[in-house]
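Any chance you could type out a protein's amino acid sequence plus the matching backbone structure tokens because I've never seen that pairing?

——
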Amino acid sequence: RIETLLYGKIVLSGESSAMSFLSSLRIRCQRCSDFPRRVVKSLCIEGDVLLSTAAEILSLCSGTTNLALWIAPSDFNGMTNPLLQPLNNLPLMSLSLSISLIFRHTEFVSLSAFKAFSTVTHLEILNGWVLWNSTIGLEYLDGLTHLCLHIHTRRTKPELIASLLAPSHLQILVFRVSEDINAVQTFLEFHSLSDSRIVLVSQVPTAWGEFGGGDMSLWKGADQVVDWRRTSTQGMSLYLAGTL
């Protein structure tokens, strides 16, 4: 059906578009109560969307498997979080978000304690401070095969990178780079972290399509790099950085 094509992948760029989308869903729910759950599979919520609005959208679109939460809501008081329950109810496979939406900046919280991450295979965390003092339990997400984080040669702890690479289930570790590419390569090589699963890319996701639209180009590009390395005689002599 046309509606399935129209609603399969949704990008909401602000509170106004999010509220319009909610109104549209409510109308369709009057005819078919499970319409959002059945139809919406890929969802990007960004800009000034309120936490309460995002939570209501996720509650309705409870069949979403591919989610990007690129918001910094003004209505998050740090005490009650309406996002947690609907997020935990999603059958997520790929997720991109700032984990500040879930908990305050602390090294003592483990993502493995949140049901939302139990089914995720492809995860991007936007916060730059991950791996400064803690892995936030990423190595305990047994289903995780693809992970994207930021790397900072002056702040990132090499031993924390090593702990992420230890589990055999992790196939791809993408690092977004904001400094000289050669400095990052030297940093990894100096600490014996020249692992063929590591891929370096530009720092900021530029569009929804880069993470989860269409062919999921972030992950597809990283897979292609790692596959090339496995068949190349050059081994780890080349890191590819670009707009995957």
